[in-house]
Design brief:
The chain has 356 residues and is α/β, with parallel strands linked by helices. The chain folds into two domains: 59 residues, Alpha-Beta Plaits (2-Layer Sandwich), CATH 3.30.70.1170; 215 residues, Rossmann fold. Helix content is 33%, strand content 20%. It has 14 helices and 16 strands. Strands 5, 6, 7, 8, 9, 10, 11, 14, 15 and 16 form a ten-stranded mixed β-sheet that branches. Strand 6, helix 8 and strand 7 form a beta-alpha-beta unit. It binds S-adenosylmethionine (SAM). The site of S-adenosylmethionine (SAM) has 18 residues, from helix 7. The site of S-adenosylmethionine has 18 residues, from helix 7.
């Protein structure tokens, strides 16, 4: 089944109408920006309106958004183009100063750099992705915004390096998906994707979320998000995790001012764990955004299961996970930290923070 038909089944008239309306462009003002950035943009003819869920997010009400993308303010990392709904998963994860955070599917870095801002770069964010070309964008966004609490790794998120097990206070899995929720911006997604794709990717999503459960410290929080609205890629993935792990609990989504509908637990032929109603379906019609799904999970105690460790090399830009072991200590003793190491921090210090 193609998405157009699925869409018809899934959604009411209001939803379809909203999906066909263009989105208002949104930006995030980074913490790096000078105090007078809003005045500067206003005097250049822009009118901005604050997005209530994240106080550094703004709708561009008047002014050319494309031009802003070519501005000096953008090049200096004062601005980041990010859709309003995409700012929500980090708000749900609630990163705090001092946290060790794993962003498992991080490229091109919208949520990584948002979280670096939220913790004011006091803490550590391991931003991982498997795709080399997307990692380049992640690297450039991390540099542009001076997100110096971020280090970038490349490993397949389905295979967590042993040294990263139970290490993180917070884990974000912003999973690859069929992107149905972005069809206001990219209507072509409705034509391009189909149910076979959804079913195939839901297996990957489950495996990524499973990794996140192993990566979290006991008591740690894991946020699972997608920019799609199919039950197969959202509630059914969480349901599979809840069936497998008895140490995982579902938290309610508590974001002031955010309108959402509860996760679906009952549908013809489908009966999912009731706790999934605590997750959030962010329909475009509710907040005039893209469509998103967000689930917040707490890992109550550690899950000890054997995991496969994959290993490969290192490049000048990307710290590969195979080095997160004793060899890392030897390496940092010899070399300076690669480009993405926190500026001003000794490599040993980073290693200590990972290992402690
Ligand atoms: C929705 S995008 C992430 C967007 C990103 N969080 C942001 O806010 O900018 C999903 C990402 O998952 C990555 N990905 C796909 N399969 C993966 C895997 N097996 N391990 C790690 N990352 C993977 C893709 O390369 C893609 O960059």
């Amino acid at each position: 089944m193609g998405f157009k038909e699925y869409f018809k089944q899934l959604a009411d008239e209001k939803f379809r109408e909203r999906m066909s309306k263009p989105l208002r462009p949104t930006i995030r003002i980074t913490r790096k920006a000078p105090g007078n950035i809003l005045e500067r943009l206003e005097s250049a003819g822009y009118e901005l309106q604050r997005i209530p869920r994240y106080d550094r997010g703004f709708w561009i009400i008047r002014g050319d958004a494309d031009e802003l993308g070519n501005s000096i303010e953008y090049a200096l990392g004062y601005l980041y183009f990010q859709e309003a709904a995409s700012m929500i998963p980090p708000v749900v994860l609630k990163p705090q100063k001092g946290d060790k955070i794993l962003d498992l599917c991080a490229a091109p870095g919208s949520k990584t750099t948002q979280m670096a801002d939220m913790i004011e770069n006091e803490g550590l964010i391991v931003a991982n992705d498997v795709n080399r070309s997307r990692l380049r964008m992640l690297g450039s966004n991390v540099q542009r915004t001076s997100s110096y609490s971020v280090i970038v790794t490349r490993f397949d998120g389905r295979r967590l390096p042993k040294s990263l097990r139970r290490k993180f206070d917070k884990v974000l899995v912003d999973a690859p998906c069929s992107a149905l929720g972005t069809s206001r911006r990219f209507p072509v997604n409705l034509e391009k994707r189909n149910m076979e794709f959804t079913l195939r990717i839901s297996k990957l999503q489950y495996e990524l979320l499973r990794t996140a459960i192993f990566a979290a410290k006991p008591g740690g929080r894991v946020v699972y998000s997608t920019c799609t609205l199919t039950v197969e890629e959202n509630e059914m993935v969480v349901d599979r995790i809840l069936k497998e792990f008895d140490n995982v609990e579902v938290e309610s989504i508590d974001v002031p001012g955010l309108k959402y509908e509860p996760g679906i637990t009952r549908r013809k032929g489908l009966e999912l764990d009731e706790r999934i109603s605590r997750t959030a379906r962010i329909y475009p019609r509710l907040n005039d955004t893209e469509g998103f799904y967000v689930a917040s999970l707490i890992v109550k105690r550690s899950a000890l299961r054997p995991l496969i460790i994959d290993a490969s090399g290192i490049t000048s830009l990307i710290i590969n996970h195979s080095l997160w072991d004793a060899r890392l200590k030897a390496l940092v003793a010899r070399t300076s930290w690669p480009i993405f190491g926190p500026r001003g921090l000794r490599p040993q210090y980073i290693a200590e923070r990972i290992y402690s």
